[in-house]
Amino acid sequence: MKLHLKLWVVGCLILATTSQLHAQLQVSKLFSDHMVIQRNQEIRIWGWHKKGTKVSVTFNGSTKQVKTNRKGEWMITLPEMTAGGPYVLSVVSGQEQQEFNDIMLGDVWVCSGQSNMEWVVENSNNALAEIANASDSRIRHFKVPNSYANSPELTLAGGEWQVASPETMANFTAVGYYFAKHLRTDNDVTIGLLNTSWGGSRIEPWMSAESLQIKDTEAYIAEAQKEHKAAFMALENKLKATFPKVGTTDQGTVNGEPVWAATDLDETGWIPMAPTQLWEAQGFEGLDGVGWYRKTITLSETEAQHAATLSLAMVDDSDEVWVNENKVGETIQQYEAKRVYNVEPQFLKPGANVIVVKVDDTGGGGGIYGDAKDLFLKTSSQKIDLSQPWAFNIGAYREPYMGVNQIGTLLYNKMIVPIQKFPITGVIWYQGESNANSEADATAYAELFQTMITQWRTEWEQGDFPFLWVQLANFMKAQPEPIASNWAVLRESQSKALSLPNTAQAVIIDIGDAEDIHPRNKQDVGYRLALGAEVLQYGKQLEYSGPVFKQANVVGNTLELSFTHVGNGLKTKDKYGYVKGFAIAGDDKQFVWAKAKIEGDKVIVWNKDVKQPKYVRYAWADNPDDASLYNTEDLPASPFSNE
What is the CATH number of the domain that holds 103? Predict the structure, then answer.
């Protein structure tokens, strides 16, 4: 069944079910025990029942009644109320009644985006301590279930409000929680986190058909499938250029036997592959399938007589491991789990020993990855480093699944539309990785992002509420020379949205992870987002941004750079006092690394070989690992280019 037909069938089933349910009193699934209702704004409560039925609502001393319309819809608006609680909400129609308890009036923040927003506390830094100490009942969380529709729908797929506690904290959005935790230190108001996020999603699925100028959803989905197929064929041709025999059947397994685990296998045609990075970061972007890694090590006679410990860092997604053709372990679909396997002495021998790892990647990133220190074989007498490149070959590729979280408007229809009647304080957003696969995509993001922000603000009918986002973190291997970077272009596209009113950006190019697209330090991410909220929403007087490039003036053979958001001054965090991360070019735009120094609130950059500098870049890379410019408030300067 084709994707668009599946969507149509699902839509019909939902409509049929919804029509039957309207025979009974319903309240939007946003309303539950422990919920947070937005303070200081009119309160909207809505749901469904038989047409012409009276519905009465009582909340915090206010009661109002309404009749359902011809579609069975009802909505009651109560006057705005100040922060407080707990309260009880009662909804009555005839003999039917629904009652919701422990309701607080506070500030509701929508948390949206892809996996780094969906990422939970349980999988972040210091998880055990953070969960054990989660005792602030004034932080509450609602996760909108991952769901979609091919046209706008008013009903949520489910969800419930949860109070922060050691029993619930593990599955809160980590960025959202640390954002709320910081706000709570200065603001005595309950914070509600309305988490509507989906890992791997592009920005287009979060936008309306109108904003994307989609006139025919069926035709749009068909075209998206066509483009997806064309991209896959291009990838297929690229793979066969390196591995001519590769196909959709694993070459390394024949009749269920792992023939590529053989100790005497001819490795002609295999290529080097670092085990510290996913294969997407090493020239195989978009590859899903089976990859094989081989490494030969030498053991002494004594070492071969004792058990050893094999540590393989992490594997995305599944692995099987052999030592000298003996299977020593496997892990299935646990891309965040460290692989540590015991190797019995009967599997070892003096001299050459062959370690083989078969990796099965079902989607997204693939391969062995992680810290070099976690790649070793520990014998009875030494720890053998396994972090250097292994021999690598592709056993098979599979066509990447084109999920609904890649298709324009589908998530918006089911995960945004049903919450737009619900008043909020603002939005925090963490998304962009899935739109950084090409320079064209990264460039187009600038207009898409601003359009989405404007669209959401218009449809929520609350004016220019605060919209705060996280700029992409540093990721992938750092490059020795200044080169093109899709991630740098995407960051620039994000920064352009600062031209919209009441916006702020959290720059995190210093707290990412070169080997993991999901950096575990979500505490600092939430903190930096909260600084913007403190200023834009809560009226605090503080510096909420790192230095932002303003202009470059030519002074002799140097460029003199000025910035906004210098705070109490500029500084470098390089341990030797150097200001790093700058590159300059003349008219030819051939960028070279530049020296730099801080002079007051300005930075002077130069390279003795560039006599007439004109262009400058800062932190312009996938992973600008040496970028060292900050303000004295310890906030990093935002990447930029003046091209």
Answer: 3.40.50.1110
Same domain, 477 and 373: no
Is there a single domain that holds both residue 573 and residue 532? no
Query: Six-digit token pair at 393?
Result: 């070959």
What residues form DSSP beta bridges with 318?
360
User: Do 268 and 386 belong together in one domain?
Assistant: yes
Assess whether pLDDT exceeds 50 at residue 615: yes
Spacing of C-alpha 277 from chain mean position? 18
In order of 32, 288, 518, 522, 524, the CA distances from 512 in angstroms are: 36, 24, 8, 10, 11
Specify the pairing of strand 289-299 against strand 271-273: unpaired
Query: Three-class SS of residue 456?
Result: helix
> Helices 174-186 and 523-536 sit at what angle, rounded to 10 degrees?
50
**Pair 416, 456: CB distance under 8 Å:** yes
Same domain, 276 and 347: yes
How many whole angstroms separate alpha carbon 593 and alpha carbon 611? Answer: 14
The sheet that has 73-78: what strands, in order across it? 26-27, 43-48, 73-78
Q: Quick check: is 501 in a domain?
A: yes
| Token pair for 240 | 């066969």
Confidence of residue 15 (pLDDT cuts 50, 70, 90): very low
pLDDT, one tens digit per residue, over 217-268 is: 889 988 888 887 888 888 899 899 999 999 999 999 999 999 999 999 999 9
Residue 108, strand partner residues? 192
Q: Decide: residue 623, CB within 10 A, 0-12 exposed, 13-18 middle, 19+ buried.
A: buried
User: Which of the listed residues 485, 507, 536 is the one where a domain comes to its end?
Assistant: 536
Strand order in the sheet with 615-618: 592-593, 582-585, 615-618, 640-641
What is the tens place of the pLDDT at every residue in 499-531? 999 999 999 999 999 878 899 999 999 999 999
User: Containing domain of residue 294, as a range?
Assistant: 234-397
Q: What is the mean pLDDT of residues 169-173?
A: 97
Question: Residue 401: which pLDDT band, with cuts at 50, 70 and 90?
Answer: low
Burial of 362 (0-12, 13-18, 19+ CB in 10 A): middle
Q: Domain end: 373, 397, 421, which one?
A: 397
- DSSP for 82-96 reads -SEEEEEEEEEETTE
User: Does residue 227 sit within a domain?
Assistant: no
* Same domain, yes or no: 520 and 583: no
**pLDDT interval class at 22 (50, 70, 90):** low
Least confident interval from 124-128, 182-186, 216-220:
216-220
SS3 221: helix
The two tokens of residue 293 are 């890694």
Q: Is 565 exposed, middle or buried (0-12, 13-18, 19+ CB in 10 A)?
A: middle
Which pTM was predicted?
0.79
User: CB-based contacts of 375: which residues, under 8 Å, 6+ apart?
Assistant: 275, 276, 311, 312, 313, 368, 385, 386, 387
CA atoms of 193 and 120, how far apart (whole Å): 13
Kindly state whether residue 223 falls inside one of the protein's structural domains: no
CA 201 to chain centre: 8
**Which residues fall within 8 angstroms of residue 477, CB to CB, at 6 or more apart?**
277, 281, 282, 514, 622, 623
Count of structural domains within the chain = 3
